[in-house]
From TrEMBL:
Name of this protein: G-protein coupled receptors family 1 profile domain-containing protein
UniProt entry tagged with the keyword Transmembrane: yes
UniProt key word Mitochondrion: no
Annotated TM spans: 35-58, 70-92, 104-127, 148-172
Keywords assigned by UniProt, alphabetized: Membrane, Transmembrane, Transmembrane helix
Amino acid sequence: MTAISVNDSFIIEVNDTEPSSITILFTSVPPMACFWIMLIFLIPSIICSFFLLYNLFFDRKLRNALNNHVIIALLIVGLAFLLLDIPNYLIFTRLGYVWPQSTGICYVWCFVNLACFNLFGFLMVWATIERHILVFHNHWINTQIKCFLIHYLPLTTIILYCLSFYTIVIFFPSCENEFDYTQNWCAYPCYSYDKNQRNG
């Protein structure tokens, strides 16, 4: 039986019948090429995010449109990811280790990476549900109470739940975080390995 093993630098095929035979399928993009590709796209992405947020915040008609609220939240989360996570990853890619090597950097990097990534996913799901409601069931939001219950409450709940969950499991875990400065995100926080914390 053949299994594929993945690590940061390459993918290998391991043959169970012959443990010593390892075939390198391909080599990943060299770290310096990855660094420059990411940096080249990071700068225009940040500029576009600020431009979109500026237009959505300062145009009253766009700011008050219900369908733009989740888009604004997505842009803010994406911008936080672009400004806090990607630069740390670029430094790690360039140097091969986390710099500066402090637990504070590791905590913030883990929090931003996990919270923003998952919050972005939850907001995308809510955006599709809300878009369906706005298009096909707009009578559900024709009063202020209905609008609060169908539009504002779910959006606020998603954001608060995700941020509070990752604040608790990363900054106040029931286990001991051990950071490895030679790994992306200083390795994962301990809650991802602790069965008791993951299962509630």
